[in-house]
Write a structure and sequence with these properties.
heterotrimer; A alpha+beta (about 950); B alpha+beta (about 230); C mainly beta (about 80); B: about 230 residues; alpha+beta; 5-stranded antiparallel β-sheet; C: about 80 residues; two-stranded antiparallel sheet; globular; sarcosine oxidase activity (chain C); SoxD (chain C)
Chain lengths: ~950, ~230, ~80
């Protein structure tokens, strides 16, 4: 393949006063394989246009050639693939050395379209084709997808593409100004001078808005305003950035691009006052051939001429209805272009652009035909009111001005519109209005800050500004503008991103979709990358025409976030996914523990063979890291009152040094949590909770203390990770632990369900519980967390001759299932009340009050609730999957398996399950539907425990 | 029936903080710490060994008076029973008392005495081992924190000597602004120059994650991890 | 994201809080009929307008507090401790 180098010069003009390119330097990039040159400051599109490129893409549905229309970030015709990055706005992205730029999804190539494509497409692409085709037959869906994919106007994301870093940060400006044109700059400077911190956000690469492509006066005013902005240290300027969304209380999503360290950054800004200075967007005109390359808006032409010094054509027809269009004609003439002006203020407009691959001739409404390679339209403006809509203010249509304008009465006090979006005037009037608005924005923001400071404890100095009521800003007037939306006869495209034609809109209305919102969804008009900023008003005008109503009656569709399409990377940004580790984590990792993610905790699931870990606990001694078990330090004379309230069982008689198992229920009687609580001293208790329930129980207890019993003298301190928790379990656990502690472990001195404090492996202030979840003699050690690894390693070293081995969560689950101990949240669910969980023994209805009592009283008097039962499959090799359903002869669901494992101790499968009351008697045989559809029989056992039901082994 | 305890000698206890960073470590006063000395403009230091006590009591009253500060502010005690301690008003009726490493026994006793003398219902819990504590020092510290914390760190909101609790990288964290004297760059020569510094205090098990998140967010500012820049 | 004015900490992002529910008085469990009790448990007013509700500032002061909030526009009228 031969390499062709294209110069920067073919259509490049001589140096111009407002140009943003650096002619002293040249860089090279590739466009569809060919090397092109650009100057720094050029966009990809301006560099290509300077080289004479007119066609940038093929359209979405019909594969029509498309060129520059707006020559800015909204341009529907130049979404490009740059390297791995799809959908790059070619008229916004600056050209960089070495860029590999390609047109997107041009098939087979940009230059040579396949007519067959249109013919094949024809049957699909009627109005609302999404809904009319691809419905049946379903078996053809994969084929439809392949065909559709070929037509989709989007780039490619290579699966092995470069990983980019997307950043996120918070910001707290008093005033955030969205838009860095003259009004935005003036408002920002005024706000900063009034004492506010300001964030000024501009979508383009420079401040200045339309002044940048204006005349000498415009350039002078721009320079003065930019200098004023730069002189204010309180203004943070973000260019190449966009305020993408506004949410409650001025929570603003700002996407910042073009940064050195990161791909993009999402700034989550909380502003006191939002000043919307988004300017006006020039509206395309709808007529036959309006999508031909060479049809451009007046602003596009002036951008190309005055920012990039690119001549957009040789012979131009300028259809103008406003001074900006007139200025474009003047600028074109000054650049040596032949210009014919068509004054649309007097009823003359264009009805058709003709040509193959680009404009060759223009037909006017008076029947005349002009040869031209450039057709410029200046037929009106659209106020991009998105941020105002997101603030709850719907714009109203003003036929005299031919645009929707914000409704100040409906705009919240925290939002002020300035500049062209708010109204019209001379530059001086617009700047003066913006300055007044900026001062008012600052005053409102500082008043709000003062209100916040009053209740904020970190700034006890109090308010640094007085609070004051908002004052209105005198509104701007509106300039008369003719209503120009579409030519007659109706033709051409209303949405060039989505390839929606004007006739599609008429067809949709004929088919009954007679409102803007319905037409939008049916035709997809306004749903493309420009998000309606170019298309909405023309769509509404066509709907109004087709329904015989006015534009005001028809109304615009709702503008929602985002203001402009945002990359998923920017939204995902820096991810915060906290994980929690125990102090023994380095040991677990070094010993190849399989990690188990349990909530935020990373825990050892096993160390290779959970069944062997179970056998070692039953026969010898094992140790498990149970640090995530919730622990709450309770202090105060009223702790027993709290325990009696939260637990269903009784706590008044618990002696110092004793521990007790307790069950908590919610007010509806549903089991909330369980655990043991020990009394360490007269007014000092240590409560344990399930690992997953630690936070819930703490907040639950605080809720009762703070809202129902603020007079109770109880302090709760969460100490879950103040201790590393190690369970030493197995018949030889006493022998092992005795080697490391000064606590007398003799059964008479430290019996089952007792608690002691003492020293372990030289570490003082350890708490030892004698309890048993595994069913074996076991001690749960709570060690000051900094010494957890030391104690763990000491246990492993001291017990080497006893065969001590670590066991993980999986072995613990098997051990507890062999013992029939329930796990709250696994063997119970959000409907399981205490009696259904087999906890009748714990519920003390003779207590005066406890949480859940009324519902448990009710449950105790009714026998129709499900029961938790031990179950064993008749075939001991079958382990029904957890959550398998238990079904009746008639096929109804009568229960489910809540826990199931193969028991290494018993050599058979064992289960817990919930079954309907009448099926809970021991010996009942039940049918379990397995996942593969087969059924298996299980038998209801007399006890939950499958092993040592009397609990002898843990009391030795 | 307990068997006679076999005499098993174990290594002397070594305490470890919640944080482990790559590289050499050393043992100081029974604590294993990173041996790196950070010298950059933005430093994250592990203060895990500091004594940490939580105190609960009436938001206003004798306990508050003795501790010297209330919710949202800090007090550094240079003399008296709590000499050497930094008291942080961590919540309404909730304080965090931080003391130099190794002073756990005395500080706990002194704080308990303060509480006992108050005659109010108040309590003290030693959470030295239950929390992670780091110090982030450098002019870029607020910019770094703005990437992980939604609270405005401007002087008018969080001045030196103030404290708040909020979400930092989705971990509930006490943030204490405790600027340190800048001895190297003190143009006035009167010890008034200060370098921005924040203490961040969270539950121990989340400490490594939080430190990793801070280092990640601080990469663009050249963050370094190492021994604390000052004794505190 | 709306701001919620915590009476202790000041205005904070609502993501720092947990919505507990409409603030209401727990009936006396010793005298409440099952019907009254279940009305308390399961029936909520859920008005379009002002409602008194309880929030928990889990990422801040860890206090429960009551506010009056207008569910139509999220305006908050008063704030104070539940107790």
């Amino acid at each position: 393949m031969t390499r062709r180098t294209v110069g920067t010069g073919d259509c490049r003009l001589g140096s111009r006063p407002g140009e943003v390119i650096d002619r002293s330097r040249t860089l090279e990039f590739r466009w569809n394989g060919a090397v092109h040159r650009a100057h720094p400051g050029d966009t990809i599109a301006s560099a290509l246009a300077a080289a004479g490129v007119r066609v940038f893409s093929r359209s979405y549905k019909y594969h029509r050639p498309r060129g520059l229309l707006t020559a800015d970030i909204l341009d529907p015709g130049c979404l490009l693939q740059v390297g791995d990055e799809p959908n790059v706005r070619g008229a916004h992205r600056l050209a960089e050395a070495g860029m590999d730029v390609r047109s997107q999804n041009t098939w087979p190539s940009l230059r040579y379209d396949v007519k067959a494509v249109n013919q094949v497409a024809g049957r699909f692409l009627a109005t609302g084709f999404y809904y009319k085709t691809f419905i049946k037959p379903e078996r053809l869906w994969p084929a439809y997808e392949r065909v559709l994919r070929r037509f989709v106007h989007a780039g490619e994301v290579p699966p092995d593409g470069e990983q980019l870093y997307y950043d996120k940060r918070y910001a707290h400006p008093d005033v955030l100004v969205a838009g860095g044109g003259p009004a935005g700059m003036a408002a920002a400077v005024a706000a900063a001078r009034a004492g506010a911190t300001v964030m000024l956000v501009e979508q383009e690469h420079q401040l200045g808005g339309h002044l940048r492509w204006g005349d000498a006066d415009d350039l002078r005013v721009r320079a003065e305003l930019v200098a004023a902005v730069e002189a204010e240290p309180g203004i943070e300027v973000l260019t190449d950035s966009v305020v993408a969304a506004r949410y409650d209380d001025n929570w603003l999503a700002v996407v910042q691009r073009g940064l050195p360290h990161v791909a993009e950054r999402l700034v989550k800004a909380r502003a006191g006052t939002l000043v919307v200075a988004a300017g006006l967007i020039e509206r395309p005109y709808v007529f036959a051939g309006n999508d031909l390359p060479g049809v451009m808006l007046s602003t596009a032409v002036r951008r190309l001429l005055n920012l990039y010094s690119v001549r957009p054509g040789q012979r131009a027809v300028v259809v103008t209805a406003n001074p900006e269009g007139d200025a474009a004609a003047t600028d074109l003439r000054a650049a040596g272009v032949d210009v014919v002006e068509v004054d649309a203020r007097h009823g003359r407009t264009v009805v058709r652009a003709a040509g193959r691959g680009g404009v060759e001739a223009v037909e006017l409404s008076d029947g005349s035909r002009l040869d031209a390679d450039l057709l410029v339209t200046a037929t009106g403006w659209t106020a991009p009111t998105s941020l105002l809509n997101m603030s709850g203010s719907n714009p109203v249509y003003r036929p005299d001005a031919a645009r929707f304008v914000p409704d100040p009465a409906a705009t919240p006090d925290t939002v002020i519109a300035v500049g062209g979006i708010a109204g019209d005037g001379t530059l001086e009037e617009l700047v003066a209005h913006a300055e007044a608005a900026g001062r008012e924005a600052a005053a409102r923001a500082l008043s709000l800050a003062a209100a916040h400071a009053r209740i904020r404890p970190t700034s006890p100095g109090g308010a640094d500004a007085a609070e004051r009521a908002p004052e209105p800003v005198a509104p701007l007037g509106l300039r008369r503008h003719p209503e120009l939306f579409f030519a007659t006869p109706i033709g051409g495209f209303v949405d060039m991103s989505e390839d929606v034609s004007a006739k599609d809109i008429l067809t949709a209305v004929q088919e009954g979709y007679d409102s803007s919102e319905l037409v939008k969804r049916y035709t997809t008009a306004t749903m493309g990358p420009a998000q309606g900023k170019l298309e909405t008003v023309n769509t509404v005008a066509l709907v109004a025409h087709a329904t015989g109503s006015t534009i005001a009656e028809t109304g615009a569709t709702t503008w929602r976030p985002m203001y402009t399409p945002v990359t998923l990377g920017a939204l995902a940004g820096r991810r915060f996914e906290p994980v929690r580790h125990s102090p023994m984590q380095p040991w677990h990792e070094a010993h190849r523990a399989a990690p188990l993610v349990a909530g935020q905790w990373i825990r050892p699931e096993h160390y290779g063979d959970p069944a062997a870990e179970v056998r070692n606990v039953r026969a010898g001694v094992g140790i498990i890291d149970v640090t995530p078990i919730g622990k709450l330090d309770l202090q105060g004379p009223d702790v027993p009152k709290l325990l009696n309230l939260l637990y269903v069982n009784k706590w008044s008689q618990l002696g110092v040094g004793r521990v007790r198992y307790g069950v908590m229920c919610a007010d509806d009687g549903v089991v909330l949590d369980d655990g043991v609580t020990g009394r360490l001293g007269e007014h000092h208790y240590l409560m344990s909770t399930t690992s997953s329930g630690a936070g819930t129980v703490w907040e639950w207890a605080e809720n009762w203390l703070q809202t129902e019993h603020p007079d109770w003298r109880v302090h709760i301190t969460p100490v879950t990770t103040a201790f590393a928790s190690i369970n030493v379990a197995g018949p030889r656990s006493r022998e092992l632990l005795a080697r490391l502690t000064d606590v007398d472990l003799a059964n008479e001195a430290f019996g089952y369900m007792n608690v002691r404090t003492g020293t372990i492996a030289g570490v003082a202030d350890c708490v030892l519980w004698r309890i048993g979840f595994t069913g074996e003699l076991s001690y749960e050690l709570h060690v000051p967390a900094s010494y957890g690894l030391h104690v763990w390693e000491s246990l492993m070293a001291a017990g080497a001759d006893l065969g001590v081995a670590p066991f993980g969560v999986e072995a613990q689950r098997i051990l507890r299932l062999e013992k029939g101990h329930l796990i709250v949240g696994q063997d119970t669910d959000g409907l399981t009340k205490a009696y259904s969980a087999g906890l009748a023994w714990a519920v003390k209805l003779d207590k005066p009050d406890f949480v859940g009592k009324p519902e448990l009283q009710w449950q105790s008097e009714h026998d129709d609730h499900p029961r938790l039962v031990g179950l064993q499959p008749l075939d001991p090799t079958v382990v029904p999957e957890e959550a398998s359903q238990i079904i009746s002869d008639g096929g109804h669901i009568v229960g489910r398996i809540t826990s199931s494992r193969m028991s290494p101790t018993l050599g058979r499968s064992i289960c817990l399950g919930q079954v309907d009351a009448h099926l809970a008697d021991a010996g009942t045989r039940l049918t379990v539907r397995l996942r593969d559809g087969r059924d298996t029989l299980v038998e209801v056992m007399a006890e939950h425990a499958h092993f040592d039901p009397e609990g002898e082994r843990q009391r030795v | 029936m307990s068997e006679p305890a076999a005499a098993v000698s174990t290594a002397p206890p070594v305490a470890r903080t919640a944080l482990a960073f790559p590289g050499p470590r050393r043992i100081v006063d029974g604590w294993e710490l990173t041996a790196r000395h950070a010298t950059g403009d933005l430093v994250l230091a592990d203060l895990g060994p500091l004594v940490k006590l939580t105190v609960r009591g009436p938001a206003e009253g004798a306990v508050r008076a003795a501790l010297g500060t209330g919710f949202g502010r800090t007090a550094r005690h240079d003399e008296g029973a709590l000499a050497g301690a930094l008291v942080v008003g961590a919540g309404p009726g909730e304080w965090l008392v931080l003391g130099p490493a190794g002073t756990g026994g005395e500080l706990l006793a002194a704080t308990r005495a303060v509480v006992a003398d108050s005659g109010e219902f108040a309590s003290v819990v030693d959470v030295t081992h239950g929390r992670a504590l780091v110090r982030l020092t450098g002019a870029a510290a607020p910019a770094l924190l703005a990437k992980v914390c939604a609270i405005d760190l401007a002087d008018r909101v969080v001045p030196d000597g103030s404290a708040f609790r909020s979400s930092v990288a989705r971990v509930v964290t006490d943030v204490v602004r405790d600027d340190i004297r800048d001895e190297l760059d003190d143009p006035a020569g009167d010890g008034t120059a200060r370098t921005r510094s924040y203490l961040l205090h969270c539950e121990r098990s989340s400490g490594q994650y939080l430190a990793d998140a801070l280092v990640d967010a601080g990469t663009e500012y050249g963050i370094e991890v190492g021994a604390p820049p000052s004794a505190r | 994201m709306m701001l919620l004015p915590c009476p202790n900490c000041g205005a904070r992002n609502v993501s720092e809080f947990r919505y507990v529910g409409e603030a209401k008085t727990r009936p006396d469990p010793t005298t409440a009929t099952p019907q009254e009790w279940r009305r308390h448990l399961y029936l909520h007013r859920n008005p379009a307008g002002w409602t008194r509700e309880t929030w928990y500032h889990g990422s801040g002061c860890r206090r429960y507090f009551a506010i009056e909030r207008n569910t139509v526009d999220n305006a908050v009228r008063t704030a104070g401790a539940t107790s």
